[in-house]
User: Fold these one by one.
Assistant:
Number 1:
Amino acid sequence: MSTFQAPKGTYDLTPPRSATFLAVREAISAPLRDSGYGYIETPGFENVELFARGVGESTDIVTKEMYTLTTKGGDQLALRPEGTASVLRAALEANLHKAGNLPVKLWYSGSYYRYERPQAGRYRHFSQVGAEAIGTEDPALDAELIILADQAYRALGLRQFRILLNSLGDKECRPVYREALQTFLRDLDLDEETRRRIEINPLRVLDDKRADVQKQLTDAPKLRDYLCDACKAYHEEVRALITAAGVAFEDDEKLVRGLDYYTRTTFEFVHDGLGSQSAVGGGGRYDGLSEMIGGPELPSVGWALGVDRTVLALEAEGVELDLPAVTSVYAVPLGEEARRVLFGVVTELRRAGIAADFAFGGRGLKGAMKSANRSGARYTLVAGERDLAEGVVQLKDMESGEQTAVPLTEAAAELAKRLG
Ligand code: AMP
């Protein structure tokens, strides 16, 4: 094995592809920032207890996929497998919910860790941008989040994604359904592990991908038939609001998602160009989570969109993001004296806010011009001994190929003018 190899299930972001990742994070967070969401950052690890209680002890995420560790001091920690529990923990710790301004709207961006079987689109280290709106029960808030995610994907140029929507009921109606489902499932021909799941988290059984299991589920009781009137009305209002916003969605009563804390509105964004790992993002309402982790009653809703899979979705659709060239001006000095002078001009340009780069390492004209080309710079500044003797630099427009001599003292101002 090469020593230059990232750990299994991980990969590095390197230029130029890394620029797309940055642009995706930016595009997903932009609508949030414009909608009253404030930035929050939490540690990459938390006490293991938070996820055990918050994500749920019966979920794959907690039982199989969490990276846990014991510190030298004896603390039991876990690398965060998702964002919601941490963000809620941090909001409670900072008493943001007591500042009298509900909902507390937060957005975040970061790395998450799950010990999963790696495959295309599924990694052990991945990246999400997420949003949480804490402390308010209002169908418009659920609708807002779905609409903002749709807006973000569209702004990126994605078209082949679909929004799946469901309601999981609340603490009134869900237990009644849960029991009806358990009674139904207990009579089926299922393996031991699935039988255990029936007792801990029966809704997850509906999510089983195996054909022989799905075949037996055809007549399973449907959550839709058990929703209480309040949940039904709430869900209808969410549907009406997103419909009015012109956002298309599909009702998917099988959508249960892998986390224990969801109530009422649940949704997932899937992309049809991604094969089996088709979920690019997901979220929902989690009215009981705060109490599950020891906080007050704080009905909340949120989502997390996967950055890695969003980039894969862009590639699958052949969308090229319109990324501006990183460098506007590239300076090519010929000789020692020119090196000092042009390095000074580059510094001046940068201080004036113009992206500039420099041919380092004393290369010849040919190699340096190649680098200038690769940099994508619109203009090149070239200067040799004779130019300096005349007090000028050669300014080359890389698009037209046109070259003009400009007085050295005016080079920065001239470039600023041309670059607008
Ligand atoms: P989840 O909390 O599982 O619903 O994850 C939300 C989003 O994060 C998913 O829709 C994916 O885009 C992304 N995601 C989750 N797990 C992984 C993973 N192992 N590798 C890459 N992306 C992931």
Number 2:
Amino acid sequence: MSYKILENGRVQSKGFAMLSKDAKFTPFDFTRHALGQKDILIKILYAGICHSDIHTARSEWGEATYPCVPGHEIAGEVVAVGEKVSQFKVGDYAGVGCMVNSCGECEACKQSQEQFCQRGQTIFTYNSKDIFHGGENTYGGYSNNIVVSENFAIKVPQNAPLEKVAPLLCAGITTYSPLKFSKVKEGFKVGVAGFGGLGVMAVKYALKMGASVSVFARNEKKKEEALKMGVTGFYTSTNMADIAERFDLILSTIPTFYDVSAYLDLLKFGGEFAIVGLPPHDTMPSLSVKDLVYKAGKKVYGSLIGGIKETQEMMDFSLKHAIYPETELIKPSQIDEAYEKLTNGTAKFRYVIDMRNLE
Ligand code: NDP
Ligand code: ZN
């Protein structure tokens, strides 16, 4: 058996944690809550590294709870199911993204917008107080297993390339959702600012939806990859004022300080600027009311992951059209190095941690 249930019903787990904001990752043994009637136990096979993991683990968004086990791009195999589980069976593949529970009863939850649970009961996959399980801190996917309500698990077919599926659970849905919200279609001009883990997914989805797509990056390092994907414009933040192209939608995935207002100039009248990138609190960019008024006729909105129903829709869409992230598989011992590369500008796209051998 690939898992161990303790006498009190809790599940034995093993993962990698940061013990303080400046620490390195260290092996960490812990337990997860017992398998409830509607819960499934997933043996984690792959876990993507999202920049949100870095923001959180380094307390860039406010003080995290330590030990901190990040990871909300989880793909694995169901190894046990609660007695009332109806949508999964042992042996199925499943994915878990940024949330593991919510009240299920408010208007937002009923509309499958669980990330906006009106009772404030969205339980995030890590660094979140799980009020449904005695208020314990949640631990994420840099680990060998996870227990989750079946209502928060995404179905993944047996023939799916699991390593590539993992990043869809956050990078996929977080970019798919605003592109759908902005009703991207044939003939749209879409700009994607920040060409990393999320940016690549935004580019691929927007192209599939029929848009012509341009990328905004801070240098030309990944220009060739972008052109190969079918991108028609590639701009760097040094030549923003010279850009003549005007966009229906610009989606920002930028995780650092930047000039938000400069992007408004690049929108058509009625164009939209959608923000998903969330820089550290102490270097958070802002947008002045003056700029909004003088650069009028543009719409600015933020977007937070996506609901479970839409996440399943994104998964099905991605698999149907073979839209996958660009991934590099790493060992758990390389997580610190990956974090370094993702912050010093030497990373390519998505690192995925191989958890298959973590018994
Ligand atoms: P990555 O580190 O994979 O990618 C970020 C990319 O942005 C890199 O390619 C980086 O370039 C580029 N970049 C950095 N600064 C600039 C700049 N000033 N101008 C243009 N490009 C820039 O991060 P992720 O894609 O994983 O995440 C991106 C952001 O989205 C993070 O802040 C994350 O927390 C947030 N996020 C938000 C979610 C939501 O629901 N709203 C969900 C998931 C993530 P370089 O290659 O040079 O480093
Ligand atoms: Zn994420």
